[in-house]
Amino acid sequence: MLLLPEPLQRPFSLISRHFSAVKDIKWGAWALTAFYLSLLSGIVVGLQYDYLHPSYATAALDLLAPYGRFFRSLHFFTSQFFFLFSCIHLLAVYQKTMKYSIAEWLQLLGTLPLILLLLFTGYILRGDNTGSSAGLIAEHIIQAIPVVGHALNNLLFDISADGLRKVYIHHVIALDLLLLIFAWNHLRIYRIKIRDHLPIIGLMLIFSVFVSAPFEPDRLGISYISGPWFFLGLQELLRYMPPLAAGVVIPGIFLLALFSAYPTNKYLRSILIVLGASLIFYTVLSAIAWMR
Q1: Whose CA is closest to 32, among 259, 228, 200?
Q2: Do 189 and 228 fall within a single domain?
Q3: Distance (Å, whole) CA 132 – CA 181
Q4: Do the domain assignments include residue 56?
């Protein structure tokens, strides 16, 4: 295994120290378990969904389809757990990625923005007040990108002209295939047995029984709509900066720093400081947005 100089090993120890108390938790296995539950429940939800009438389809799924509310909640929350467990898993095994090549590191890190895009397109597809607004904001941000903005919007969203057809295709096919391709080398080394994770499966099932996935029909007279929790900070940033800066440049700088944080980078300490400060700043912005 590649050994780094002592000054460069300290950031690793700082990261690992915070997870030493939970080192026996199989975060990667939990993430995969949540992912499988999300896929299975997503199939059930997808069979009842109509992207031509998204709001009606979501409401009908909750009210008319047998156990529809449960399956939609299970799909929604297991997808969130998949993202959270994946992030914690990456932090917990960060030192072990020293043996990865730069290409393997970039491929692995690429799964995180793909998961976020899956979560975000899921928010849009529910077709409620929040989802519709989120889709329009995303279009506005992408179209602000010089030269390629309109072409990129036509590829990813194009909601204003084409409704939710492209968003639906990306959510159920394109993004899932890309995620599997990016994570394939990593997934090959993980094998899980369902019987070993029955407690966490039971907790996610019970949680989905008692907590319903959000759905907000149109309400007259409201002046503020809260977006997805993972984009609350971005939503708040858009209040103070133009879309190109808030929605493209700043997130792009963060992603560049994240992808540059591979363990053998000689500037790792500075990159980790930038990432840590960015996360703190984003958390503060998210808290401000949440309290509005």
Answers
A1: 200
A2: no
A3: 30
A4: yes
Domain boundaries, position 277: 224-292
What predicted TM-score, i.e. pTM, was given to this entire model?
A: 0.85
In this structure, are residues 227 and 135 in contact, taking their beta carbons and an 8 Å threshold? no
Give the position of tokens 């295709």.
169
32-77 pLDDT per residue, tens: 999 999 999 999 999 889 999 999 999 999 988 889 999 999 999 9
pLDDT at 101: 85
What does the DSSP assignment read for 137-159? HHHHHHHTSTTTHHHHHHHHT-H
The CATH number linked to 121 is 1.20.810.10
Q: Is residue 199 located within the same domain as residue 89? A: yes
H helix runs in the chain, sequence order: 6-17, 27-48, 54-63, 68-92, 102-109, 111-125, 129-143, 149-156, 159-162, 165-169, 175-187, 198-210, 232-237, 243-244, 250-259, 268-290
Torsion, Cα 162 166 168 172, to 10 degrees, reads: 170
Owner of token pair 């309109």: 150
Kindly state whether residues 66 and 155 are assigned to the same domain.
yes
Domain for residue 21, yes or no? no
In a 3-state reduction of DSSP, which class is residue 214? coil
Task: Let me know whether 118 and 209 are in one domain.
Answer: yes
